C-alpha cells in the first residue's frame, strides 16, 4: 500500500494520477489481448505463419507500450513539451526517409524497417504534433504579439504535406480534424474555423478528383454496386450474426475470410463472437476515457495542459470513432486501427505515448511553495 505521507516520486504519482482513467486504459489493453487471440490466428494461417504469430507480437508490443505509458505519465508539462519536440523531429525525419527508401505497398510508402522492426513514423508524429500545436496555441493566449498561430499552421501544413505524399489520407483527415478542434478549443474566431472547414472540404474534393484510390472508396460507399465491398459487407454481416451476446469465443465466421480481421475489422470480430453488448462496453470505455480527460483538462489552470490534454483526448476518441464507424459502414473505409485493440506495433506504442502524456497533463498537481508565496504577497499588496 502506498501511503500519502511518503514523499517519493511513486507516491506522488499514485495520489495525483487519474486512477480511474488509468484503469480504463488497462482494461482496453487486456481486451485487446483477448480479441487479438480471437481474431488473428485465421489471418496468420492464411498467409503461412504460426497461428499465434500476430497474438505473440501483440503481447510483445504491449510490454514496451505499457512501460512507455507509465514512464511518460511521470513527466512534468515542461518535460512533455521537450519530449514531444524530439519525438516530432525524429518522426518527420523518419517519414522523409520512408518516402525516399521505404518499400511501396499497394501504391503507398508508409513503413520503414529499422533494426528488423517495421515502423510507421506517422503514428508517433500524431501525439507529438498535438502537444506542439497545443503549446503554440497556449503561447498565443499569453503573448498575442507572437505569431504562434501561424507557426501552428505551418506545423500542420508540414505534416499534412508529408502524409499526402505517402499517401495516407486517413491520417491526414485525422490530423486535420484534431488540429481544427484544438484551434476551436483555443478560442479562435468562428470565421477562421469555418474557413478551415472549407479548405478541408476543398482538399477532400480535390483528392476525390485526382486520386483514384480515394475516389473508389467514396464511390463504393455511396453506391456499393460500383465496386468490391467484400470487407465492409462481411464486417456488417458479423454484427448481424453476433446479435446481442455473440456466437461464442472462437465461433466467428467473418475472421476466416476478412484479410484485416486482426487490424481494421477487429471490432466486427468482437461483435460476432462476443456480441453487441461487448461492443457497447468497449464504446463506453473509449467514451469514459475521452470525457474524463476533457473534464480534468478543463479543470486545469495551465493553458498548455488544458489544450494538450484536450487535443490528445480528441485524437484518441476520433481515431476510435473512425475505426468503429468503418466497421458499421457509417463512413468510407480507411485504414485506422482501434486504439489498443487492433494489432500493430507502432500504433500501440505511439498510442501509449499519447495516453501517457494525457495522464501526466491531467494529474492533480499541488501548488508549489513559490506560487503560494506569490499569491500571499499579491494579497498583501492588494490589502
TrEMBL record:
Bilayer topology: Multi-pass membrane protein
EC assignment: 2.4.99.28
GO MF: lipid-linked peptidoglycan transporter activity; peptidoglycan glycosyltransferase activity
Primary location: membrane
Pfam families associated with the record: FTSW_RODA_SPOVE (PF01098)
InterPro entries assigned: FtsW, FtsW/RodA
Catalytic activity: [GlcNAc-(1->4)-Mur2Ac(oyl-L-Ala-gamma-D-Glu-L-Lys-D-Ala-D-Ala)](n)-di-trans,octa-cis-undecaprenyl diphosphate + beta-D-GlcNAc-(1->4)-Mur2Ac(oyl-L-Ala-gamma-D-Glu-L-Lys-D-Ala-D-Ala)-di-trans,octa-cis-undecaprenyl diphosphate = [GlcNAc-(1->4)-Mur2Ac(oyl-L-Ala-gamma-D-Glu-L-Lys-D-Ala-D-Ala)](n+1)-di-trans,octa-cis-undecaprenyl diphosphate + di-trans,octa-cis-undecaprenyl diphosphate + H(+)
UniProt-recorded name of the protein: Probable peptidoglycan glycosyltransferase FtsW
